[in-house]
Specification:
Elements lengths: L8 E6 L8 E5 L6 E15 L2 E15 L5 E5 L11 E6 L6 E3 L4
């Protein structure tokens, strides 16, 4: 995964032996760039012994736009509540409306 200037990978994880191996850089420090907070809302699903349940959620999504105007970092895109403090690197589409993310190299 190419790192943008200012991105600070703090931890590296490897999958256990016998599995497909890949190193994952976990970004726990806010990358350099223009940080914008967005309000988000939607539903999330939980599963139990009794089936599935959809619940409403709302919150803030922080996105850092890097100086290259292509690389973005999303803070806790799948977390609800306090989150995990992990930034996920992505790349904006040509029209700037969507982001493809990479989790492994």
């Amino acid at each position: 995964m190419a790192m943008c200037a200012g991105a600070q990978p703090v931890h590296t994880m490897s999958k256990p032996a016998g599995k497909a191996t890949a190193n994952v850089e976990i970004i726990t420090e806010q990358p350099e760039g223009n940080v914008v907070s967005y309000t988000r809302s939607g539903e999330y699903m939980t599963a139990s012994l009794y089936g599935y349940d959809a619940t409403q959620q709302t919150g803030q999504m922080k996105i850092t736009y890097a100086a290259d105007n292509k690389t973005v970092y999303l803070l806790d895109p799948l977390a609800y509540g306090e989150g995990t403090g992990v930034w996920v690197q992505g790349e904006l589409s040509d029209d700037g409306t969507t982001s493809a993310t990479k989790v492994v190299k």
